[in-house]
Specification:
heterodimer; A: about 270 residues; alpha/beta; eight-stranded parallel barrel; two-stranded antiparallel sheet; 10 strands; about 45% helix; globular; B: about 325 residues; eight-stranded parallel β-sheet; 11 helices; about 40% helix; about 15% strand
């Protein structure tokens, strides 16, 4: 599993405060902690506390702070193309990067794809278009097809495409998780080799009392359905344990009594 | 015209490279060192990935005269088996062994119960007699090995030997010795891939570098469970190539030991008239076992019969 660590996000108090104080230390230590805990990439999100006009500058500062301590892939998380460019430019100087994200909106996609091509970046494509979040598997797949087509037009390889079916809080729409699981299976059959499939896992349990349990239970189900990447909290040890165990049960790793430890020693 | 799809496997991982033997440049006295592992594809599929290194053919030498070995095997080795130094020299100079595997059989309580000093002396004798890299093997009795192998390890300090074995329940003593004396280590598992991985994890948890571990998955001889060994080794290799770092260790096989246990190898013409000439049968059995284990992906083969060694060497030259 390709874990994109979600913790460098201005929405979290520790990171929000670090941004406000222009103190890179908490950001850098959070980057290191996530990497120690199985993150394969780090999401970078300035959050909503920062005024819109300052977001590009803050993104640049966040990325440069993280790049001082790691050359791991960074997923630049922002909906605005201008801020995305600033983040990707800064991130690409010191390692690989991923665009998080584009929707399938026709007027939005090409700009992000051009940026991905220019910097050799991966790109996350959301199952959202002009009509909002697609509600059914078929509608999600239709958008995914448009995203793949647009990526191919821009000569972006399948290994750089991450499709996100969009998970919503379970307490808002209880039918949605099952639909997402069906969609994941369909995404993996769109091409050979298959595109990556990613979800923003923490959305699912948001606002519920058992969010950790809900998130990790869904994670194992989504892995079984074919999801190979997830934006999640690497510091949630029980979640990581569940993920490692799911992969073991799918025969993706050889069992040993210390299989949890073995995974973490990779 | 449509192009055929390229069906070659593209693997993400590779086996670790383990170096055995230290030359003077590296603080030892060996005339050359050997590198095993490093493969990036399945065995002998050059179209996937060329073999990184030739498999190593070592010969087994004991610290005591192996009186129980069958006469047809002893006849091929001659009087040299009376002393480990002479025996090792003959293996290298006359038979062409790449390395010597010194088995400290005499330290076993049933075979003389020699102590740490004697073990160390045997190691020194072989190191002086030959300049190829050395593999040191205990008597496979945990308590006794914990007493003698540290002395053997110390006697060869800095020579970058390969020493074994450790297992799931007994590894700390030898790991500490090999760390201190710069040797590599052999992890034993009883034809069980899960335990093989567990041993690697336990050893590495003590701070032992992954590129100094070799797996001994134990083996069956031809006719005695060899197919199962083969499938275990194949699964381990494909896991390693898929990126499982705890399975990416090269493999050693005690081919001579396994083959000469078989009645087909040991039995006399009188006992087994339908199986033909006993002077050639055993070495063929050993060579056939070696051929299968090479295909399974073994990196170091420890042989006993010079004829089997030669046949295996010829085979490797032909398929590589």
């Amino acid at each position: 599993m390709y874990i994109i660590g979600e913790r460098i996000n201005g929405m979290f108090t520790d990171i929000g405060d670090a941004i406000a104080n222009k103190d890179p230390k908490p950001v850098q230590s959070m980057a290191e902690k996530q990497i120690e805990n199985c993150a394969s990439a780090l999401d970078i999100n300035v959050g909503t506390r920062v005024p819109k006009a300052e977001r590009a500058d803050v993104m640049k500062w966040l990325v440069e702070s993280v790049r001082e301590v790691t050359d791991m892939p960074l997923a630049i998380d922002n909906p605005a193309l201008s801020t995305m460019r600033v983040g990707i430019e800064a991130a690409a100087k010191g390692g690989p990067c991923i665009i998080n994200s584009t929707t399938g909106q026709e007027d939005k996609m090409p700009g992000f794809m051009e940026l991905a091509k220019e910097f050799g970046a991966g790109i996350i494509g959301l199952a959202i278009d002009e009509n909002g979040v697609a509600a059914t598997p078929d509608a999600k797949v239709e958008i995914a097809m448009r995203i793949i087509a647009c990526a191919m037009e821009h000569d972006i390889g399948m290994e750089d495409i991450y499709l996100d079916p969009i998970v919503l809080p379970v307490n808002c729409n209880q039918a949605a998780p099952k639909i997402v699981l069906e969609t994941i299976q369909m995404f993996t059959m769109l091409s050979d080799p298959a595109p990556h499939v990613v979800v923003g896992l923490s959305n699912l349990g948001q606002g519920t009392q058992e969010k950790h349990l809900i998130n990790r239970t869904f994670l194992t189900m989504a892995i079984a359905a074919g999801m190979d990447s997830s934006i999640q909290d690497p510091l949630d040890t029980e979640m990581t344990d569940a993920m490692i165990t799911a992969e073991l049960l799918l025969n993706k790793a050889i069992y040993s009594d210390s299989y949890l430890k073995a995974y973490r020693q990779r | 015209m449509t192009m055929m799809e390229d069906a070659r496997e593209k693997w993400a991982g590779a086996l670790n490279e383990v170096v055995i033997g230290a030359t003077s440049e590296n603080g030892g006295t060996r005339s050359s060192s050997l590198t095993v592992g490093g493969q990036k594809g399945l065995p002998f599929m050059g179209y996937e990935a060329p073999e990184a290194h030739k498999p190593v053919l070592a010969m087994e030498v004991w610290d005591i005269e192996p009186t129980e070995w069958p006469p047809q095997l002893l006849a091929a080795l001659g009087d040299a088996v009376k002393s480990p130094g002479t025996w090792a020299k003959k293996c290298v100079e006359e038979f062409g062994a790449d390395a010597i595997c010194l088995k400290l059989a005499g330290t076993h309580p049933d075979q003389g119960d020699a102590g740490p000093e004697a073990a160390a002396a045997a190691v020194k004798e072989v190191l002086e007699a030959v300049s190829v890299p050395l593999i040191i093997w205990g008597c496979d009795l945990d308590e006794k090995d914990n007493e003698t192998l540290p002395a053997a390890s110390q006697a060869a300090k800095g020579e970058k030997c390969l020493i074994g074995t450790v297992n799931e329940d007994n590894y700390k003593t030898l790991v500490a010795s090999c760390l201190a004396d710069e040797h590599s280590i052999i992890g034993l598992s009883p034809i069980d891939i899960n335990i093989a991985k567990q041993v690697n994890i336990l050893v590495s948890e003590m701070g032992f570098p992954l590129d100094r571990i070799v797996m001994y998955p134990t083996t069956g001889a031809l006719g005695y469970g060899l197919e199962y060994t083969y499938s275990i080794q194949e699964r381990g290799r494909s896991a390693a190539l898929s990126g499982d770092k705890m399975m990416a260790m090269p493999v050693i096989c005690m081919v001579g030991l396994e083959a000469w246990r078989a009645k087909e190898a040991r039995g006399t013409a009188e006992e087994l008239p339908e199986l033909g000439d006993e002077t050639t049968r055993g070495q063929y059995w050993e060579a056939a076992t070696a051929a299968a284990l090479l295909q399974a992906g073994s990196d170091i083969l420890v042989m006993r019969h010079p004829g089997a060694l030669k046949a295996t060497k010829d085979l490797i030259d032909r398929i590589m």
